[in-house]
Amino acid sequence: FFLFWCVMEGWLSAVSVTVTVAVVLVAIIVQVFLYVAKKKKKSLMVNVELAKGDEFSAVVKRRMDHISEYIEGEDYKKPLLPDSFATITETNNWETAFDLNPSYRDSNWVGLSEYLSACKIKNHNARQAVAESFLATFQRSLIKSSGLPFPITWFLPKKVKQGKLPVHPLQLIQISLIATPSLMTALAETKNFSDREIKRIQPGKKKSKDKKETPSKLQSRLPSHCKLTEVFEYYEDENPKASLGNPMNQKLFPGLYKGFAPHNPPAFKGKHATRNRIVSEVCNRFMKNVSVDVNLPSPIHGEGCFTLEMPDGTEIVRMDDFVEYLIDQGCEVSCNIRIASAVMGVSYSIDKAAAGKANSEGNEYYDVPFAFFMRTGIFSEKYNAEAIVPMLHGGMNLICKGNLKGFGDVSFQIQYYMLMGAHTRWNARNNAQDLISWNPGKIVDEWKDPADVIRAVRLSCWNSAIVNGLSMKENLYSCGYGVMGVCSDSVAPIQQIISGKTTMYPVLALGEYRMKMLKAIRKLQDQIEGNAATFKCKDEDVKDLEALFHSVMNLPNDNYLDPDSYEDTLHRAASSLPYEKGEEPFASVVIARKIIDAELDSIKQFEIKQQ
Prior knowledge:
The chain is of the alpha+beta class.
């Protein structure tokens, strides 16, 4: 441009050419300098090593001694708010929700924060790289499994935000579901994602598999009429094996693998796993008989209705009749509600060889207890802290034990819940995540009375008909997961009907979609009552739909803290801590229990004073 200007002005000379060349050379030198500086910065960012042998053991012990100060006795005073977490120092002393409970742990467990303490992170840039890389992997995993833009946030003290203090990658990575912002508010926060991810997670932009009217990928394997004695021919025997998964970036995370370590066995295997898979599919076909479209329920005995012929020739088209048949034949059938930390298929393991422990006895890998932590909004002045708890997975188990004459063993265990990226349905829980030593789960309710069991499965069919039908009608992404609730929402109304109240927490269905569910239930009631002969429904169906209507209407809403139901929220939050007292793998769960108990105690003391 300078030369062109000189020509136009008639000033072209050796001086102008020299000046132009000099400017170009300076620009090139500057670009080379910036490039080298950038490469140098990148090389600094991956300067991470893992402490080995005795040094690794010393790091783990130091972390345990450090966190012990937090949970011993009732004099815990240190703040645990996300904005108040202790700041990292050059000696790597930090506190996160991932810290393990030193009073209850296995020798094969290594906490995620312990592991990062053992990583010899050489400088500030390396810490930033580790943080950004872990966050990116963490968030991609959750988006991939759910299809929803969960707001995984990185809470930091103000001084850190101002750049005055160094940063730690786990201070604190957690999911903001409750209080502010809620999960539902987060659904609109797509601006934090790349264009590619936005296209994948926008509501209404469903994958082709979501457009199927049936909830199972394997539906085509079963004909519309089949015999129980032949149904296993449509499936191969299932014998799942534990696999380690893929190594993380070994420059940033030496020895860290994403996946279940091989020593974690599948929950079920062999014939039992196969039966679980087949029975869950059969039950989902029964649910389809009830309704595939909330606007037009299929006749129970309509053309194309799925029918299962039992060994004695009895033909069954309803799930409640299937369960009743098993009970009448002498099988022991029960239901329970099981909760656990929601791992969503994400697990981490550490290669012992990388930590200099290759010759140690026992397993070849450490398990890394890992949970998706969420805020509750429950704050205790006594501890000056907010309860941070693991996200909950809740499902209703249907368990059968026994034999059928002319067939043999029909024992199975399947679980009913709302899935990420799929419909609300029955599922075979055969993989390793239900037998991880640090996430054993617990039973919070159980029904053994045959009438209660039969009613529970009948309610599951109607609840699925409503939720799945609405998700298809509204063209909701991930089949309504999130806006119509999460896994705990799918079992909360059933528990409330059978047991009189629900203990599930959190319950997150948006009010807008709960209203649509209520209207859909009323519409179904009208259709059934006006076409009883056509639909071949039972009197119990009308009663159950009425009960389901009132249950959905009166369920709690945990997208915010309601002062009017705060005590109930506290009781449900306490019941939904997925570990028995004294068996919490995470120190944060121990502290959360203290916070919740302190709030319940303060309410009790206030009531005593009022008397």
